[in-house]
Amino acid sequence: MEEVECEVVIVGGGPAGCTCALYTSRASHKTVLLDKNPSIGALAITHTIANYPGVDRSMSGQALLDQMRDQAIAYGTDYVRAQVFMIDVDGEYKMVYTPEATYKAKALVLATGAMGRKPTFKGEGKYLGQGVSYCATCDGAFYRDSEVAVVGNNKEAIDEAFYLTKFASKIHWVTQIDPAEDDHDAKALMAKDNVQHWSHSRMLEIEGDASGVTGITVKKRGDEENHALPVEGVFIYVAGSKPITDFCEGKVDLQDDGGVRVDHEMATSLPGVFAIGDIRNTPFKQVVVAAADGCIAAMSIDKYLKGRQNIRVDWIHQ
Predict the structure, then answer these.
(1) Sign of CA dihedral 157, 158, 164, 168
(2) Engineering a disulfide at 243: which of 114, 139, 156, 234 sits with its beta carbon 3.0 to 4.6 angstroms away?
(3) Distance CA 172, CA 197 (A)
(4) What's this model's pTM, rounded to 2 decimal places?
(5) DSSP 3-state assignment of 151?
(6) Cβ distance 17 to 294 under 8 Å?
(7) Burial class (CB in 10 A: 0-12, 13-18, 19+), 54
(8) CA-to-CA distance for 229 and 232, rounded, in angstroms?
(9) DSSP letter string over 202-215?
(10) What pLDDT digit, counting tens, does each position of 177-186 carry?
């Protein structure tokens, strides 16, 4: 597996992560921004942004995020689409693991937001890691020539289901509502020979045994009987409002509400590890607050990497 070395690695491509990347890149720190999917975060799915200073009130959240990302890239940020499944923060260098590469950095920024969720489906928690997964790019290859289910109708679910078509013999796509008429990605997915779409359906239960998942039960609207689907894997993409910390739990201190604990410089309990945006579970879930977090963290990182006692803004040029 490829190992990429940099000074700063940021996990999460929302407004907090993009702002932090913009500042660290302008400060000439080699920065890598790892983004699972640019279309699924809280800002990306916001229809219009009316209260972000200086932008047209008709601008969509996706358009604003695209501008933030492009600006960071223009200043030298290395933007990478990747799913992070584990971090190692012991020692001077922080290691971040994705299916495609390992990233080695002196400073790590956690900016994955708060659209996670606790297990809610019956059997989900029991079989997590034994057939239940939230990352097809991480685990899809384990289900070659097997039947799997994908639950959810957002962009992430569609993208991950597409990825699974390379491996699974059959994919049961379970959605409670139909995709939009102009959703060309969804139509392309349903046109695949190995995809069966269960529209207006909800998953009731995940069944299994000592070996792992063996099937799911689906309730389709209008049908009297439930449907038993013999799958070995269940990939769930349903958004919630819980800070996304599954990849870093046990590594940094969390608050009682599940957010990552930070100080006034956005530093966590571990030297060189910072957390910004909604992953802190701040009650002020606004784009401008997330961007401010990113700025504060970047200036703190600059101080940390240069061994200073105080923050100094030394990359503003006239």
Answers:
(1) positive
(2) 114
(3) 6
(4) 0.82
(5) strand
(6) yes
(7) exposed
(8) 10
(9) EEEEEEEETTEEEE
(10) 988 889 999 9
